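Note to self: keep these together.
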Amino acid sequence: MPEPSRYRFHSIKKLALVGLTVIALGGVLWFKVWAPFSPQHFPLTKVLRPDVIAVAPGIYLLGKSSPAAVYLVETSEGLVMIDSGLESNASSVKHQVAILGLKLENLKAILLTHVHADHSLGAAHLRSLTHAKIYSGHADAETLRTADSLEAFLSTFEMPISIHATPVDVELNGGEVIAFAETRFSVIATPGHTPGGLCYLLERDGLRVLFTGDVVQNLSRPNRGLMGTYIASLPPLFGGNATDYLETLRRLRAMPLPDLILPGHPQMDEIPQNPHLTDSKWKALLDVGISELQLVAARHEVDGANFLDGTPRELLKGLDYLGNIGPLGLYCLTTPEGLVIVDAPGESSLVDIVSARLRQLGRSPRPIVTILMTSAAREASSGLAELVSQTKCRVVVPKAALDHFRQRYSDEINWLTEEDLTSIGDFPIRAIPVAGTHGASLAYLIRADEKSILISGHIPVRPSVPAIETLHRLLKLRKDGVAEYLQSLRELSNLRPDLWLPAIPIQGRNANLYDTEWQEIIEQNRQALP
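Structure:
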């Protein structure tokens, strides 16, 4: 048996050797595995802060991009970027790559999740600098290449930017695997937010990371929805589809839970979220979106997707939307006596336009017997003289504007006012005097097919930046414009319409109203007043 002092010395020596060996092996392991994928000054973070951060070894959030996130992945074959930001010159993206100490010329691929400008506009510039290949969903690729649809790029958002064509090198349908040495990206087709939407599932060293784009925009709103689902309630020209989106979310729910969920807009989370979700939180988030989309799809099935998007369509039995003339919607009621149309816009023959668009709906032309004027505005009455000359129809006008109409048009016209109107054919109708942007006006509340239809003219407006700007400008031209408009809003706020037919169908929105949507529109108009 050795002496105690010598035993202690040998034990310490052995422990030191073991420790040095562990440190050396750890250093080799770090150098081979972690060093290529984790700059020393970017330690891993647990939450998706709006900054340049590492969320996993070699996986970075370029969180200073706005409004959408850009992600960057290091591989031993080069850099892979998921989405490319809103800026056409990718200025912020390039700056953030430099902050990481990485070389942009090593960029090999840009994987686009979808066509929207805040995710795609930087790609063309980055490709021109680096020769990186751009990957996109097949159904979004042609839109990216042609850049001929502002709605497809911007949705309903109003941005002071120009869109441009983006070349697509590789079109994806879902099911493909894109490999960069040790890093694999499985492509998942996720249509619904846009036709060619994709998610990418990264797999490396046992780690599974899902890049969701806007299919799941952020992580902390289980009670307010996934936000990206809003597009399923918009007209087809915006690219959303409730049925497709619903199937997408169900498909994601059925997948094994990824280790990290990296959404398209993490900055929407008021409190930065940990992308490592529990199974219950992930499914709860998806379930809110599934519930929303089930409701939208069911409503479209029952009530019709009655979009006022320029395409003639039957809204209800006896009530047709005949597209637009300029910015104004053209609405038509069919009665046993003949056709009733709302306003008389346009310079060319309205009779011919109405007949042609009815034929598009498979209807035979019929005589126009009544015009329901919503105001004396020139844009609403520019075709009135010719129309009355051709048809000898009656014209309903606001009583307060009757003298104005009589001065402008022939005495031979059969004028009616709200006091003379109780029904139109088989349709009970009530004319409601309102005022505001175009002086004395009328809104019409009609009962058809067991539903209430409100034809409102220019009061209220569907809130948007251009609509509010126009509202302010027109009200300033009238001495009591704001007071009159407020009174009109009070009158209309007591109604509960099932369908709303405004003079100008902003963004082609659905004519159907649900839940508290009408009250919200009225309140938004109140808040928008100068």
